[in-house]
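Researcher: I've been going back and forth with a colleague about how Threonine--tRNA ligase might be arranged in three dimensions. Neither of us has a model we trust, so I'd like an independent prediction. The organism is Candidatus Yanofskybacteria bacterium GW2011_GWC2_37_9, in case that matters for your notes. Sequence below.
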Amino acid sequence: MIRIMEKADKLSNMRHTLAHLLAAAAGEIYKFDKIKLTLGPAIENGFYYDIDFCDEKVTDSNLKKIEDVMRKKLSKWTEWEHKEISKDEALKFFKNEYKAELINEIAERGEKITTYTCGGFTDLCRGGHVENPAKEIMPDSFKLDRIAGAYWRGDEKKRMLTRIYGLAFNTKEELGAYIAQREEAEKRDHRKIGQQLGLFTISEKIGKGLPLFTPQGTLLRELLNDYSQSLRAEKGWQKVWSPHITKNDLYKISGHWDKFGRELFLVKSQETSDELVMKPMNCPHHQQIYASSLHSYKELPIKYMETTTVYRDEKAGELLGLSRVRCITQDDSHTFCTPDQIEKIYEELIEITQTFYKIIGIKIRARLSFRNPNEPEKYLGEPKLWEKAQEILLKTAKKNKLDYFEAIGEAAFYGPKIDFMGTDALGREWQLATPQLDFVQPKRFGLTYIDNEGKEQTPVMIHFALMGSIERFLSVYIEHTAGIFPLWLSPVQVKVIPVRENHNEYAKKVFKLLKENNIRAELDDTNQNLGTKVRDAKNNKVPYWIVIGDKEIEAKKLTLESRDKGNIGQMLQEKLVEKLLEEIKNKK
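Model: Here is an independent structure prediction for Threonine--tRNA ligase. You can compare it with whatever you and your colleague have in mind.
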């Protein structure tokens, strides 16, 4: 573990060093007295630097020139000189308003103001570099990537700067592998495939972050949700329903208003003075269903589930296809139980999660998302309850032999959780299912049950979403599969293709037989040649198509072709239906 951390720190330091080198190259080309340097950190996969080029227009076409100067200068970057300077010295040396803002903030915090110099270039910096850049950075292991606009300090009211992004890895091979992976990711972009397959659309007339699903896309959503609900129903979860708007008092009690009030959509009533919001989550609603009657320990655990849409006012600049939206459909569950039932509930949720993602074909591991003890202000509840909850999750992970790791600071504000992280076909990791332990909200809402001694106790609440957000899950799943869905999930499972018009009558009978057996089929009896019809089936990634010509009618059989396995050959209609139904039943 220590070696992994050291390697990660060295790569981060290398990327930070390259951000300085980028600033030095830009200053040499565009003249330091005519541009204004701001700041440039290391980021995942590389680095960037934000620059105010003033009247100079810089585009992607300028990147190669800057990159060439970076490589030329790199050979002279052999050591760093570190200095601590006063506020006045810093303001005199760094003469632009951006650096002045940073310097004043550092001074106000009572921190040391430091500069680092390498190869004749000096920048305001806290440190974190490779000691000898010329020796430790390979010239072919980095590449300037693209240019984007970025507001100073992320504030839309401030000046737009030019952000130059770079990629950097330990070796040329690692850089090449990342670029190849990214190119493949672009091909698999769920927005492109979603449009190609006609699954969803986003209309400017409706608004950003508010996707519309077509019949085929809706079918895909519902098939996934039906499976999600069936797995939970088998373990005793029952459906409930809650409205989409609520008084904001509900979230003030839960603690969400103080934490996320700015992310809520406000609703104004024409009839009452109530302050209403679009619901951003379901847990407080489900707690009110629980609170509507008295409960004995004999009734627990009580298990609710609801697939419903919640709403959050995400920033427009962060919205992206289905992966970041303002209407979020959750396959949500909430369980109210006694403390000694926690392990059993978690075992059930782990089993459900493992079953679902095995069928989906995504490998998962568990992230134990714990509280950061150094930032107590971020969390609600007593530290002792947090410690107890985290001990339970760690014990559960070990007992169930999960592939897990701990992540300090990733807990929700009201409880620790197990985040199941899924690795897609490109090796990218995504947060998916989440069972979350909560000792805080039930107490805030005054929820109780009567124990075996007749005393009132506070139940434990376990939040769980199997897909998390259906929209975000679909963005991951579409890219994971490249839109090549298994038979049971494909909106169109079979396409019936008559070769010529005189084969249409027999094709219609086959189509009718498939529909009668609840197999999702399409009949392509358009006046097109066979090659065009087959190409259309392939482009739409249909799992199977049936070709019907003279030979098939004469033999009273069907020729089945597979998207994945090619020509399967002729078979009787009954055998075909039997084969397809078996595959659908087994979720192939």
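Researcher: What would you highlight for our discussion?
Model: I'd start with this: The chain has a mean pLDDT of 92. After that, consider the following. The domain at 494-585 is CATH 3.40.50.800 (Rossmann fold).
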